[in-house]
Amino acid sequence: MPSQRTVSILLAFILATVLTACGNISNVRAFNRNYQEPTEGDRAQLRVSVQGGMVRGVPGKDCIDWGVPESGVIAITMGGFADPKRSPIPMPAPSATTKQFRSAGRFEEAEVYIPAGKPMTLDYLSSGGRYQCFVHQSFLPERDANYEALFRLNGSSCEFLVLKISEGPLGVTMQEKVPLSKASLCSVWDVL
Fold this sequence. Notes:
Shape: globular
Number of strands: 10
Strand order of the largest sheet: 4-1-7-8-9
Protein name: Lipoprotein
Organism: Leeia aquatica
Largest sheet: 5 strands, mixed
């Protein structure tokens, strides 16, 4: 008959294993499913440009919650994860800032609809190299507005920016920096 101490240790090990597996299942889902665009209600448009990594979205939350069914990968530059093949949507031409940002190398770009009037959290994970970026930011999209989100690792610094864009005179794209809020985890289980 095992001692009470042995049984306690065994139960703690089993509980830790089960809880770790639950967290990993959630994380795998967050890396391997595509962001689901809203098809009804108030919407805005978002163009995401990412260099070296992936950008995932969590609609309707100002925190990271991979339990939201529509959450998932928006744009990605690496293989082995979700593969969101997206069609362009009606948006103004890329802003001068986006053109300059993208001139630094290979970018993956995606255009998606996002819910308006509710928070939208964007999560950037850089890939490879000596340094890593983990950026979690949220903003509040306005109805029928157009946005650009730019993410890259530049040397040892993470660069990210969200712009509200509109078509100005003579077809020039106007831009305005959008205020961002740091997004934390909604739950300790939403680590990645």
